[in-house]
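User: I'm putting together a small comparison set for a docking exercise, and I want a reference complex before I start. The sequence is below, and the ligand is calcium ion. Could you produce the 3D structure with the ligand included, as structure tokens?
Assistant: Of course. I'll restate your input first, then give the structure tokens for the complex.
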Amino acid sequence: MSTARTSIDFDRNGKQVGFVDIPHSPHEDAWGATRIPLAVIKNGEGPTVILQAGNHGDEYEGPITLGELIRELDPAQISGRIIFLPALNIHAVLAGRRTSPVDGLNLNRTFPGNHAGTITQQISAYVTDIIMPMGNAYVDLHSGGSSLNILPSAIIEPAADPVLRKKNIAAVLAFDAPLTVVIDNLGEPRTSTAASVRAGLVTVGTEMAGAGTVSIDALGICRRGVRNVLSHFGVLPTTGKAPTARPENILTLPGHDGYVYATSNGVFEPFHPLGATVRKGEAAGRIHNLGDPSRTPETLFYAADGIVYGRRQPGKVVVGNCCVNVACRYEGNIT
Ligand code: CA
């Protein structure tokens, strides 16, 4: 049972901007609350689209885009309802960190959450049990975060149900990012988008650059994409333009083979820029041991054919760090 409370009335027409408060009792504040920004814009009948960002606190294009929409959209412009959660893991957002400084958790590995768990688990449980049942569609706006830079993309969360899969693909193509990529996070069930698909909502994800900064290009793509998706669902008027994103161009991360991990500690020297075409078995880069110049750098290799889709940002690496990601053509079902 959630102890969260909001003064926002989800059924009222108009624009409401406020918070959901989850009681939180740290040393400094025995009877305090975690305040999560929440906004609702509603006008008459129509679908409910949940727009969420700040799942990770060091990914900025999504929260900026949703803040603008909250301020700019007039209820008369929409048909239906938009529920905004623009800074969902608020402790991580305010700290500019991927994970919560309160309990150390990655919100996107806590779904469906736990109302009796830590604060991050309570946030995901609130989304799962209170927010998702109100929605027809769920959009989670990610970027690469501090450690990764990713080619700006709209993301398809796989769905076993063919009807939902078709709707997801159509909605993600409607976002109209330069790339459309199927990502299952190696089968990870604890993400918001996996939970959203389980709840039967049409689900859209993104990866908008990253590197812990604000990308001018990705922010433009994100702004246009969110409006495109709202038009796709009929919440905003139609754009009148067909998306340029094509189903035959959909990419995917080919499981573990899409990840090049550091095999020693040191500094990773990449060999290819983002977007480069690479081959399985080709050298991806090498790890230098700066403290011992007599040691030969250790070479890392790609395990799949494709394009360089994401790359680690800090030069320093330890064993297991993800240095490069490769995306390849998606061969799965797109109909
Ligand atoms: Ca992320």
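Residues 3 and 90 are 17 Å apart (CA to CA). The first strand starts at residue 5 and ends at 6.
User: Thanks, that's exactly what I needed.
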